[in-house]
Design goal:
The protein is of the alpha+beta class. It folds into two domains: 6-99, Phosphorylase Kinase, domain 1, CATH 3.30.200; 106-293, Transferase(Phosphotransferase), domain 1 (Orthogonal Bundle), CATH 1.10.510. 34% of the residues lie in helices and 22% in strands. The chain has nine helices and 13 strands. It has helices at 56-70, 106-115, 122-141, 180-193, 216-230, 236-241, 245-248, 263-272, 283-293, and strands spanning 6-7, 12-15, 18-28, 32-39, 45-53, 82-88, 91-99, 144-145, 154-156, 162-164, 171-172, 175-178, 209-212. The strands form four sheets. The protein has a seven-stranded antiparallel β-sheet with strand order 1-2-3-4-5-7-6.
């Protein structure tokens, strides 16, 4: 579980024998908070994610997220600096210490441009998409899937290098469903852990006898690409209006008319947004198509832009 954590005076805390100073709150979600802390030993800033755990199952899920981080040492996946579990009365908190990425998320960038009626240029989109795919490939190569890929779960470094984060929904890539009870269990899990407007069609109505695989991430990747191209996800407005996303994802996607992007990029988007997951490409195929579209993209996800 990591070394014991203690909270001392003036907002100083210790994680794995290193001291950190609380700076400010960065944000919060339904069951977690993120604080900015500074390492007293190195002067660097870090993001401290605190996950509220109400019972043993919550603690198990938090430790699962820790283990998912530990599996990877990859430039496009957020690394775990340290962690611990602390008891707070009848409840627990899991504390995950992560690198602080000052520029924020891909969604921050997309939203800022949209507010100025501007859009990402194609070369920039290809650069970011390539890095996301490299991170996904590392996950898929370990026989896991992210399951909650979306613009708010992609950080951007200063060189626009994308970093996948929030690994708490990751699970085994291949899920063999046998029977209606298991199908309902998978469907309920997806409803809780996979963001609705980026959720793959096969996770809305899980069939009684089927195999779900890592290509749920390819659908979500298509939604991320769409958001980079058009300033919002393809199903964001449907969800905001209160209409049925589950029904909308059963139809082929319509790509808005535009003169900003090449036919090749639109074709790539369409190939990801295929309703039947067995007809979707794997991430290795997406990478090959990306490199054909933009040959200057290399294996390190760097470009001259």
């Amino acid at each position: 579980m990591g070394a014991t954590l203690c909270i001392c005076s003036r907002g100083v805390l210790t994680i794995e024998n290193k001291r950190y100073l609380f700076v400010e709150k960065l944000g919060e979600g339904g069951f977690s908070y993120v604080d900015l802390v500074e390492g007293i030993h190195d002067g660097r800033f870090y993001a401290l994610k605190r996950i509220l755990c109400h019972d043993r199952e919550d603690r198990k899920e938090a430790l699962h997220e820790v283990e998912m981080h530990r599996m990877f040492n990859h430039p496009n996946i957020l690394r775990l600096v340290g962690h611990c579990m602390i008891e707070k009365g009848p409840k627990w908190e899991a504390w995950l210490l992560l690198p602080y990425v000052k520029r924020g998320t891909l969604w921050n960038k997309v939203e800022a441009l949209r507010d100025k009626h501007e859009f990402l240029p194609e070369e920039k989109i290809l650069h970011i998409l390539h890095g996301i795919c490299l991170g996904l490939k590392a996950i898929h190569d370990q026989s896991y899937a992210h399951r909650d890929l979306k613009p708010t779960n992609v950080l951007l470094e200063g060189d626009d290098r994308p970093i996948l984060m929030d690994l708490g929904s990751m699970n085994h890539a291949r899920i063999e469903v046998s029977g209606s009870r298991q199908a309902m269990s998978v469907q309920d899990w997806a409803a809780q852990r996979c963001t609705i407007s980026y959720r793959a069609p096969e996770l809305f109505n899980v069939e009684s006898n089927c195999v779900i695989d890592e290509r749920t991430d390819i659908w979500s990747l298509g939604c991320v690409l769409y958001s980079m191209m058009f300033g919002e996800g393809p199903y964001d407005m449907i969800f905001q209006k209160g209409d049925s996303v589950a029904l909308a994802v059963q139809n082929n996607i319509t790509i808005p008319e535009n003169n900003r992007y090449s036919q090749g990029l639109e074709t790539l988007l369409s190939s990801m947004m295929v309703v039947n997951h067995v007809d979707r490409p794997y991430v290795s195929t997406i990478l090959s198509q990306l490199e054909a579209l933009y040959p200057t993209v290399d294996g390190q996800a760097t470009t001259r832009i």
